[in-house]
Sequence to fold (603 residues):
Amino acid sequence: MSVRDEREPLDPRTTSLYDYALFRYGIEPDGQVPRKGYPLPDGSPPEPARKHLTWQETRAEITAALTAPLADPDPVRAAEAVHLRARELGMTDRTLRAHAARLDLTDEGAARRTARQLTRSGTTAAAVGIGIALLIRLGEPEDVPYLKALGTLCGLSSAASAALDPLDRQAAALLVIRGRHRSELLTPLAAAIATGDAEAVRTALIAVPDEPRALLFPRRIAEAADLDGLLRAHPGDPELLAVAGRLLHRMSRDPGRRPEILDYLPARSVYAHFLGQADLLPPTPQLHELLLSTALDLHSGPAALLAWRPYRREALLGRLERLLDGPAWAPGAEPLPAEERRRADWIRRTGRKPFAPAPAPGSHPRWEVTVVHDAPDSNSVETRILVDGLPLLPALFGNGPGNAPEYLIDNGALRAGPEPREVRLAEASCTEGCCGALYVTIRRDGAEVVWDGWRGAVGPPPPAYRFDAAAYDAELERAERDHSWCWPARRTARLIAAGLRERPELLDRWDLGVIWVGTHWHEPHTTVLRLVYSPADGAEGPDGTPLRLYFDWCLPDDDGLLPKDRAAAALERIARSDPKGYARLQRGSSELAASLGYSWPQN
Fold:
C-alpha cells in the first residue's frame, strides 16, 4: 500500500477516505494497522435511528434511491448523487452496503465507474461503503490497491475483504484476521504479513497457539500467510508441516459453516506437501492424533470432495497408512496420564477406520460412525453417509455434521419400510431454527430403497438416490452391530437407551420420559440420562403451557463395572425407585418443583 505524503494537511470535509487511509498509514511510526482499523476522520458518528422497515421495504427504498444514479454515464455526477441519497435514506452504513451489493443493475459498466469514483474520492463511510459493496460483484484487478487501503478503516474491512476475495485472496484474508479476530493472538502474524518478509511470516505462523481461539479462521490464516508458498520455500520443515496439518484439519472441522477446506484453493497442494513429508514429523501422540484425524478428513470428511486427480486421494491415504503402521508410531507400554490415555484410546478405536477398503462403485451406501477428537476432553460423534465412496452430507448441507448414530442408526430411522417417512439427517450446529437442517424421505420401491424429497439442502435440489434394497439392509445391519467406535461411557448410554426402548414401562410408572441418553460433551467418560417429568394430571401454567421438570442423571465410568453391568444396574435402579429422587433437577416449572419439595434452583 502506497503512502500519502503525511505532511499535507487534511480537511475531513473534502478529503477522500482513500486519501485519509493512506495518510493514517503514513503517520504510524511502525506502519502497523490497529486491530479494529483506523478511526474514521469524523470518529464514530451515531447510527441513524431505525426506521423499523422490513427487509423488502428497505430494499425497495434503497433501490428507488440508487437505481438512477448508478445508471448515470457520468461517474462524478453519479457519485455526488449517491452521497446525497445515502444521507437522505438515513439508514445504517451496514444496511446500505448489504442492499447495494444485491441491487439489480441496468448498466454494469456505469455502476462500475461510479463505484470506482466512490472508492477513490468518496468522503463519507456510507457512500464509500456503497462503492465497495458494488465492487464485490464488479471489481477488477485495478481496484485492489484502493480496496486494500479502505479496508484499514474502522467499519469497512468486512466489505473490502468481500470485494477483494475474488481478486486477491491474501489481501482479503489479512483484512479478515486483522479485523474480525477477537483476540490479540494473531496480531504478531498480521504484523509480519504486512511487512512482506516471508521469514518473519514463517516465524510468526509457527508461534500461533494451537488452540481454538487462535485458529478461529484457519483458511484465512493459511491464505494470509501464503502457507502453500511457505511449504514450497521450506521443504522438510517439520514445524511448518505440523502447522499445515493443524490448519487443514481445522478447515475440515468448522461445525457451523460450510467446511472451509472446500473454499481453500491450494488445499490439494498443501495436503500433498503435508502428507508427502509426514515421515519427517516426530512420532508424538499429538501428531499421531493429527495424522489420523487428517486421514478421516480425506476418507469420509469434506476433504474427500476436493477435485482430486484419479487415485490421488487414495495414494495419500495409502502413504499415511504405511507411515502409521510403522514401528515408530506404535503405542508404548508405559502407563499414561489421563489425558494421554484418552487420546491413546481414541487412536486405538479409530486407527483402521479411514483405511478400510472402499466398496465397489454402484448403488451401495455406507454408514460410518466417526468420533471426531477435536480436544482431549471432548468427543464429537457424527454419522457419515458415503455414497460411491464419497461423503454425502458435506456436499448437500454444510451447516452441521450428520446426526448421532443413536438417532439415525440405533432407533431404526434409516430403515426403509412400506410407507415413506421423512428423516432428519443433519442439523445446523446452532439450531435448526437458525440455520436449518437436512431432511430426506426414505421409501422402499420394490427391490430398491429410494432417497428423495430432499428438504433443506444447499444449492440445487439433489437427485433421487436409488440403492439396491438387499445391499442397503445389509449395510444398515452391519452399522447397527458395529460398536467399535464406542468408548465405555457411550456404550453404557447405548445399552441403557436400548433397555428403555424395550421396557418403556420403567419410566412410565414415574411419569417420566426420556429426552436423550448419551455422554457429556466435556466429560465424555460420564453417561447422562436427560429425563422430563410430566404430571399425570396434565397440570398447566397460567398461560396454558404444560408444566414440566427436566432432570439429568449422570453416571461416571469410574465404578469399575463393565458397560453392560453398569447399564443393567441403572435400569434395575429405575425399576426400583423414582429417578426424580436421585437425578439432578436442571430446569422447568418452579411452581411444580416447589410442590414436589425441591428447592429452586438446586445448588
Residues 358 and 389 are 6 Å apart (CA to CA). The mean pLDDT is 89.
